[in-house]
């Protein structure tokens, strides 16, 4: 088994820190990557950290990651409608943690709580800010004995 964790981020997360900081905070995606890198290195795991605004690219990355140590995915806007990403998640043979920076169950629109990805993930972390990424990596490390 690979000792690599894939952290995959969906649309608009490239603007983290600029986009709606009252909801998503002031940390940038580079800050999140640094946190993930420190957490994975401390547990002896390699890290692949990516962000895309393109559905097909996320599908390709999930297929690549399907036999890795684990996947941390913040599907962002893909959460509510992307059946291709859901199907790619279902092909994965590793732990998968869905992460949302904000608490999707306390958002202004009810549809934000209806992520279809959860049916294919091991667990979900929502509303703990960017710390949720580190917690997800810690969970995966525990699952693979790292």
Short structural summary:
It is built from five helices and five strands; from the N terminus they run E-H-H-E-H-E-H-E-E-H.
CATH topology: Rossmann fold
CATH superfamily: Dehydroquinase, class II
Sheet with the most strands, sense and barrel status: 5 strands, parallel
Query: What CATH architecture do you see?
Result: 3-Layer(aba) Sandwich
Secondary structure: helix percent: 25-40%
Q: Which CATH class applies here?
A: Alpha Beta
Radius of gyration (CA) equals 14 Å
Structural class, by secondary structure, is alpha/beta
Assembly of the depicted chains: single chain
Distance between the termini: 12 Å
Task: Output the helix-strand order.
Answer: EHHEHEHEEH
Q: How many H/I helices?
A: 5
Which stretches are low in confidence, meaning pLDDT under 50 for 5 or more residues running? none
Strand order of the largest sheet: 2-1-3-4-5
Number of domains: 1
The average pLDDT value, as a whole number, equals 92
How would you describe the overall organization of this protein?
35% of the residues lie in helices and 18% in strands. It has 146 residues and is of the alpha/beta class. It has one domain (4-105, 115-144): Dehydroquinase, class II (Rossmann fold).
């Amino acid at each position: 088994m690979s000792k690599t964790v894939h952290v995959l981020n969906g649309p608009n997360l490239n603007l983290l820190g600029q986009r709606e900081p009252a909801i998503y905070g002031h940390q940038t995606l580079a800050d999140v990557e640094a946190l993930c890198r420190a957490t994975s290195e401390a547990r002896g795991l390699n890290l692949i950290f990516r962000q895309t605004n393109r559905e097909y690219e996320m599908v390709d990355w999930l297929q690549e990651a399907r036999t890795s140590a684990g996947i941390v995915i913040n599907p962002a806007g893909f959460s509510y409608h992307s059946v291709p990403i859901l199907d790619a998640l279902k092909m994965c043979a590793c732990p998968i943690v869905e992460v949302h920076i904000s608490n999707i169950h306390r958002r202004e629109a009810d549809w934000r709580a209806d992520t279809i990805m959860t049916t294919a993930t091991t667990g979900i972390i929502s509303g703990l800010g960017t710390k949720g990424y580190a917690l997800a990596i810690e969970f995966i490390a525990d699952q693979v004995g790292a």
